[in-house]
Amino acid sequence: MTTFWTIWISVITLGLIIGCFFLLRWALANKTGVPEGESMGHAFDGIEEINNQLPRWWTILFYITIVWGFIYLALYPGLGAYQGLLGWKSSNQGVLSLEESAQARADAKEEGLLVEYDRELDKAADVYDPIFEEYAKVPVEELVNDPEAVKIGQRLFLQNCAQCHGSDARGANVGFPNLTDDDWLYGGSGAKIKETLMLGRRPIMPAWIDAMGEQGIKETVAYVLSLSGREQEPEMTALIDAGKARFMVCAACHGMDGKGNQMLGAPNLTDNVWLYGSTEQSVTDTLTYGRNGVMPSFKKTLGDDKIHVVATYVYSLSH
């Protein structure tokens, strides 16, 4: 914060507190000329105004609040760039990455600063880390039978995964997998789900327009659509046959039968589960331009033990 704004905030804040003090002193002073306890000469509806001082207890409390205001402003940040005598902060401001956040936490501890957000994290870790450690000792396939663990995993999922996969885990939009079915690009076992969360995924479907040309794309699309058992018009037979020959280059990832390869994250093309859409145009776009999805790693965000519980919840959705 600039010097100008620090001065601006300080003058207004301190000025208001000092103003309250003088206002109180003015209210306590008897400037009416009427002795205390005597009538002010005003009466309405049988009620007469008497010249009485403010209640003593109220006055004392007002003084206490003024003194406390100065003490608070001296101890805690509140006057622009002034950080306070205690070195207290609500959080580490200005961090843009997990690495910067971790470094800021370490620096704050080394300098003896009181960062409230860091203290809350430490307090939560003391309480909850032992619980997650115990959950992590149980295999996902067994932990799924613990309703409390699944509920905790669901809450972590809603906080970290629902933005892409939706609150119901069915995929928030095109390109985000539905986690409630039994169709998995990399495998649906507890270990594979946990691996995906730990390491992230970066599948790449290359663009084939340069290698195949528009006619080749059209032929391959016709064959790919036929793999999922769709009825095709008789005039499409020639296109499908030509596409089958071209599919040889696709078989390196998707397999000769088009059933995919979970080692590579290549999808099964023989079912009716389509990540980017099942229309002819969608499949044409996929072959023409390629696809580059990204599933980020949550290892640094959640840690091993919490990921184990999230994996348990995701596993429960399709098992």
Calculate the mean pLDDT score and round it. 92
Proportion of residues in extended strands: 5-15%
Helix content, binned percent: 55-70%
- The level-1 CATH class of the domain at 204-292: Mainly Alpha
Family: Belongs to the CcoP / FixP family.
Domain Cytochrome c: 148-228, 238-318
GO biological process, one term: proton transmembrane transport
Binding site for heme c 2: 205, 250, 253-254
Descriptive key words:
319 residues; mainly alpha; Cytochrome Bc1 Complex, Chain D, domain 2; two-stranded antiparallel ribbon; two-stranded parallel ribbon; 13 helices; 6 strands; 55% helix; heme binding; iron ion binding; CcoP_N; hydrogen ion transport
Characterization of the model:
The protein has 319 residues and is mostly helical. Among the domains are: 138-202 and 296-318, Orthogonal Bundle (Cytochrome Bc1 Complex, Chain D, domain 2); 204-292, Cytochrome Bc1 Complex, Chain D, domain 2, CATH 1.10.760.10. The protein is 55% helix and 6% strand. The protein is built from 13 helices and six strands. The longest helix has 26 residues, at 3-28. The two termini are 54 Å apart. 19% of the residues are buried. The model has no long low-confidence stretch (mean pLDDT 92).
